[in-house]
Amino acid sequence: MALNTLSGRFLVLTTVFVVLAEFAILLPGLSNFREDYLLSRLERAQIASLALLTTDQMIDADLEEELLANAGVFNVVLRRDAVRQLVLSSPIPSPVVATYDLREDMVWHKIRDALAVLVDPENHVIRVIGDPVQRGGLVIEVTMETGDLRVAMIDYGLRLLMLSAAIAILLAVLLFAAMRRLVLQPISGVVRKVAAYAEAPEDARRFIDPTARIVELRVAEEAISSMQHQLTAALKQKERLAQLGQAVAKISHDLRNILTTAQLFADRMEDSDDPSVQRAAPKLMNSIGRAVNLCETTLAFGKAEEPPPTLSRFNLADLAAEVVEGEQPPADAAEIDFVTDIAPGLRIMADHEQMYRVISNLVRNARQAIAATGAPGTIEIGAGETASEWWIRVQDTGPGLPERAKERLFQPFSGGTRKGGTGLGLAISAELVRGHGGRLELVRSDSDGTEFQVHLPKSAGEA
Question: Which Pfam families match (predicted)?
């Protein structure tokens, strides 16, 4: 099991916590055992001293030595009635190196003293002070060696370590198994589902179905599922755009030939003596020429991307008048007034044909929105400039855009507002404006109408 996996790291953490738990159990246990051991020595020494107290301080030397040996001490001092008495005594093999008062030791001090006994292999003589049992006096103190205490503590520590280790290992195994079953396996399942989806992202059957019982994992599944739906939808949209590009290229090829023939006939119309035909012929020639140019551009690139703009300086009011003339509604349609608010001398630096398409798309959308209501309306084209940019405004008095259309306004096949519409007009216009370094934005859209603004930076035109 590799350490860089969740299972490996969880196993390492479990092992570390088990070791810490061992120390947390072992150290207080050894401290308590040492204290109990010393208290038992004090109790046995007090019992041994009772033999002397019942014989009026007279006892045989051999019996005294035997009592001290059974108690495991060298001497016993018992303080009764504020008088300190040496009750039992024997020769001490070495000086006393430390004194421990069991009445006042703190927990940390007890643990420290227990560790000191364990790490010191030398057999020292110590003095131990405590309270007598059964109110047998005020204070009792004994002197004893640490060798037997150390041996007993080691034996007890090994037994405690083995028992606690067995319990800790069992708990660690159960915890690891539970975490692997409840957390690691569900995560592995999500990873497998994501990998399966990556192999065929178009297959909707491979979407993750959020079923996890763990809240955090279920939230992750829901987020991944939402991402999968959006990604698959985006892939399908791109596929539709690719298919559309191929279809447009084929249509453009045939349409170019048809328009070229129409252009030849339109050329002959210029020789007509009819004044109305002479007025309409140049406009017809411009429209056909623009259509032919668009077809050739599509064929040249072989896809739906727009070419970089060819910048030139032109009069914006003339362009707006040309758009208005081309977007006039039929005679039997609802009455729509076109208002142009552009200074006659305003000239901008941009691609003339692309700006025509941008404004024409915006005006056409406004005209269709008003026509759908069957009521009269107004479309206004305004423009101006600041020190850093030119702006063009197209607003109408139509019914406004629905909320669904606002969410994906400039996305192909998503921002259509009328039945049968593709939503390509705004997407194309936004792309053309971005090609100029500018932006197309929706200023407002409510029951009073809709307003779009085009912003073209002057720096791009100067460059």
Answer: HATPase_c, HisKA
Name the maximum alpha-carbon separation found in the chain: 160
| pTM reported for the whole predicted model | 0.43
Query: Tell me: the pLDDT tens digits for 290-347?
Result: 776 666 555 554 444 567 888 999 999 999 999 888 787 766 566 889 999 999 999 9
Domain membership of residue 351 (yes or no) is yes
* Residue 337 backbone phi and psi in degrees, to 5: -95, 135
67 belongs to a structural domain? yes
**Structural domain span for residue 423:** 306-462
**Domain end position, chosen among 152, 171, 190:** 171
Last residue of a domain, one of 171, 193, 218: 171
* Own/partner long-range contacts of 365-370 (Cβ < 8 Å, ≥24 apart): 365/417, 365/425, 365/426, 366/394, 366/395, 366/396, 366/398, 366/450, 367/327, 367/329, 367/336, 367/396, 368/418, 369/396, 369/398, 369/399, 369/417, 369/418, 369/450, 370/334, 370/336, 370/396, 370/397, 370/398
Q: What is the pLDDT of residues 86-97, one digit of tens each?
A: 677 788 888 888
Same domain assignment for residues 17 and 160? yes
- C-alpha distances in angstroms, 198 versus 231, 235, 418? 11, 12, 36
18 DSSP β-pair partners: none
Pull the structure tokens for residue 261: 């023939």
User: Structural domain tally of the chain?
Assistant: 2
